Each structure stands twice: as C-alpha cells, then as structure tokens.
Amino acid sequence: MAANSFLYNASLREQQRRASLARARTVIWVRRLLIAALVLGAVSAGIVAVVTRSDGHLHRGSVAFAPCRIRLVAAQCGRLFVPEDPHRPSGRRISLRIAVIPATKQPATGALFYLAGGPGGAASTEVPGVDQLLGRLASTRDLVLVDQRGTGGSNPLSCPRTDTRPVQTAAVAAYVRRCFAALGPKVRFYTTAVAMNDIELVRRALDYGRIDLYGASYGATAAQIYLRLHPHSVRTLILDGGSLLSVPIFERLPANAERALRVQLARCSADSVCRRAFPSTRSELTTLLGRTARRAQVISPPEIVTIDAYAVASTVHALSLEPDGVALIPQIVHWAAQGDYAPLAQEYATRVGVGVGSDASLVMSLEILCSEPWARFDPGHVLRSSADSYFSAAAESRARLLARVCLSVPKGVVPPGSVQLAPATVPVLILVGGADPQDPPANMRGWRTYFPNGRLVIVRGATHGVLAEGCIPALAARFIERGTARGLDTTCVKQIEQPR
Predict the structure, then answer these.
(1) From CA 37, how far away is CA 440, in angstroms rounded?
(2) Residue 500 to residue 497: CA distance in whole angstroms
(3) How many H-runs (helices) and E-runs (strands) does the chain carry?
(4) What percentage of the chain's residues is helix, strand, coil (to nearest 5)?
C-alpha cells in the first residue's frame, strides 16, 4: 500500500514492514560503512510465542464466522452489514470485514478491539502484529479487528491511480475534485464518528459486554471518539502514540518535529563514535533544505525521483517517527550533504511515497481530515508554530494543499459533541514516546482532567507508537487483565533502550 502523504500511518503492520525493509537496507549500508571505516550498527531482535488455536468455527452472536488465515495467522473472519447512511437504517447497506483471533479458552471472558492507525489503515491486515504483541491476552479474550468503513474489506473507496506529487498543488486539487465528484455524496458517511458507531454495532452483534479498546496514532483519536459516543461500552482503554482530542496535531507539528529531532540527534552527540562520524547533522540538514531540487535514482521500485526541500523535510520527519529510522538519520543526511542522494531518495520513496497515494485510504483520510476539528490545519497557525523548525515549510505546504483540496471534499457527518473531550471514569493507559515528533507528551497535557483513573507512561527516547518497545506488551496485558491503572508497576519502562 502506498504511503499516505497527508498523515503518516503508525500501524503495527507499517512498523513491521518498515522494520524488515530497514534490516535489509542496513546490510547494504553496513558494507558501505565498513569500506569507509565508519561502522555504526543497530540490531534489534524479538522473540514471540506462537499460540496454536482451534480451526473450528467461532460462534458469536448473529455474525457467521469461518476459519481464515491472514499472513499465516489462524483467525476467524466474518461480515456484518450496516447502514451506509446511519440516519437511513432501511437504505443502502455496506458490509464490514471482521477478523477475530479467538481466545484459547472458550467461551471468552471478554474482547479487546484493536483500532488501526492512519486514518486509512485496515485493521484486519494487522492480525499478525496484534497476535504477536497482544497475544498474551488471547488466553481469555477474543482479539477483534474491524476494517474501518472505506478501507480494506469494508466497502473500500478509492481514486484512480496517479503519480501526482503533493507539491503539485493545482494538479492534486483537480485530481481530488474529479475523484470525489465521481464518488458522490456518500463519502460524507465515512468519518470517525460514523465508523465508531459501526464498532458499537459489531460489539452488540457479537454479544460482547464492555470491551477493552486499543488505539495507536489515529486509532487513539478514534478510540477517544468511541469512548465519547459509547462510554458504557468500554471496560479499559489504551491510547498509544496519540493526542487529546482538543489538540490541533497539524498546527503543532513543526515545533514538535524540531523538538523531537534535537532530542534524537542528542543521542548521536552522546555517543563518541557517532559524534565523530556525524558531528554536524542539524547544520547539514539546513544546508540540504536550502539547495535547489535535484534528481536521484531509487532502486526499489526502480525510478527517478525529485529531491527538493519538501522531500528532504518529509523524509527526515518520516525517519524520526520510528526507532530504526532515527538510527539512520545522521548517515543519510551526511551522505546527501556530501552529494550522494540515493539513500535519502530511497527512504523518501519507501516511507513517504512519491505520489499522493491512490489506495483506498486516500478517500477516507481526506473525508476525515477535511471534516473533523482535531485535524484542523490553518496554514498561518502551522507556520507561526515554529518558524525555526526544519519542518515548517513542508508542514505549511501540506496545510495549504489540504486547504485547497478540502474545497472539493464534502463535509462529513460529525455529530455535535462526538469530538469534544468529557471526563470519563474508565481506566486509561496512556503510552507516549518521549521523542515522538507527531504526538509527544505535551499533546497529552491536562489528561488527568478527562481521565482521572488513567496512567501516563512515557518511554524515554521512543518515537511514534510504543507497544512494540521492551516490556510494554506485558505492561499493556497486565493493565487489561487487572482492569485498573491503580498500582500498575511500570518500573520496567526505565530499562527500555533505543537503537544506537
């Protein structure tokens, strides 16, 4: 799936795919570094228990399930039909794809619902990652993944393929205008609130009581909206790499990106080998941002891409979102500053995407970003948030693009109050990366007012989404099993280290 140029996806699937690519690239780059007598490596490994489950049919409520395999993981797949227009229950209906990893002990004592990132992630494709990182809960709980309407197997909406770049504002706006005109007014029903009402219909159809809820990145936003709409349906809530609903993520992005990058580069400065090899990464980045655009070769897929200031800033930001990417920033920036743009171009094509993206996530993403207040992106506010940030110009460019594109996107259904914070007594575990460039700890400031029974856990030096970090999977499992954040032992978090 092409990367979403409007909002980076921090889903488990994307994290694992990118980690695999990073390991492959590291093999090539280490050879190159050995030749240059600059050996800087980062190796990470994980051991995951594999749980074998029955191949029999799952019986839950009114939904018929059948055994399925998603990337070799045994699951149960089913469908639920829901109204496309929630105000017309007898009108056109669409089907939602539901994937369940059944509890090994049936009947299950409950269910954990996983909400994908994006917006635009299809939850069912992330079954392997959920099985690995949350599998400990599957002894007594079903793990439920529903493709959000408009994505994956839930009535996906898509635009024709295009190679138009985000910097081609007029061309992108025309492309979106044609696409949304062809799709018609039905796109108004593909917002977060409507999708969270779908989740509630799934919960009821499967006869679950109060559910445990996990959401990362945009999934954390969706989880808060579900809690707002259906507070009595939630037993516990985990927000991983998210921001409070009241925080304008895009308008704070330049300042947050700069702050995170400086923290990340400080790790290089604190390491004598890295400091000697790359003593001036931040100034080299400034140099790159001031250079004229140039063309560079990408190996996979083979193509020539244009590297300009937007591409440089967007690539560094994408790298700073993930642990493996952070470890590569000094060498990629240094090589580009020395005239070798190939590694930077490859990362740009892989992590950001050369085009605006033509997959199903684009339509659903734009409908949400153009309609919901948490995604507001006034270009003036974006620029003023931090004029000295390396990401200011790129973020302002993206904001201006969205402002123009949204003129062609119908305002979606956003019920009053659905995106407004309100105090909730549900136990909440808030997981944040200390060096997250998009949803840092500051974006959760004031959380106690809304989640008095919550607990904030900051993973030092971590980036965007921390479920895969060290002891966090076990910590999340303990929180859900206990059903409370009170007395939760988080001392193991201090032992988590980031890649060199």
Answers:
(1) 36
(2) 9
(3) 16, 12
(4) 45, 15, 40
**Can you name the residues that pair with 432 across neighbouring β-strands?**
458
CA dist 215 and 241 (Å) reads: 9
Measured distance CA(237)–CA(299) in Å, rounded: 42
Burial of residue 246, with CB atoms counted within 10 A of its CB: 0-12 exposed, 13-18 middle, 19 or more buried: middle
| Average pLDDT score over residue span 393-422 | 92
Collapsing DSSP states into helix, strand and coil, what is residue 208?
A: coil
Alpha carbon distance 225, 17 (integer Å): 28
pTM (2 decimals)?
0.89
Helix (H, G, I), strand (E, B) or coil at 333: helix
* Coil vs helix vs strand at 137: helix
Other C-beta atoms lying within 10 Å of the C-beta of residue 57? 12
What percent of the chain is predicted at pLDDT more than 90? Answer: 73
More confident residue, 370 or 167: 370
State how far the Cα of 331 lies from the Cα of 342, in Å rounded to an integer: 12
Residue type, 96: L
Structure tokens at 22: 């990073």
Apex 201 CA angle, 200 and 204, nearest 5: 85
Structure confidence by residue, pLDDT tens digits, 123-165? 999 999 999 999 899 889 999 999 999 999 999 998 888 878 7
Distance in angstroms (rounded) separating the CA atoms of residues 321 and 393: 18
147 in Cβ contact with 123 (< 8 Å): yes
Phi-psi region of 359 (alpha: psi -120 to 50; beta: other; left: phi over 0): beta
d(CA 407, CA 119): 19
Q: With cut-offs at 50, 70 and 90, classify the pLDDT of residue 118.
A: confident
Residue 7 gets which letter from DSSP?
A: S
State whether the Cα torsion 449-455-456-462 is positive or negative.
Answer: negative
Tell me the CB-side half-sphere exposure of residue 327, using CA atoms within 13 A.
20
Neighbours of 228 (CB within 10 A): 20
In DSSP terms, which residues pair with 296 in a beta bridge? 305
Q: How far is CA 494 from CA 136, 281, 416, 457, in A?
A: 22, 28, 41, 10
What's the rounded Cα separation, in Å, for the pair 194 and 82?
11
CA atoms within 13 A of residue 488's CA, in its CB half-sphere: 25
What is the C-alpha R_g of the chain?
22
pLDDT of 481 > 60? The answer is yes
pLDDT tens per residue, range 20-55: 444 444 433 433 333 333 333 333 333 333 333 444
> Residues 396, 288, 291, CA angle at the centre, nearest 5°?
85
Amino acid at 92: R
Closest to 242 in 3D by CA, of 17, 403, 457: 457
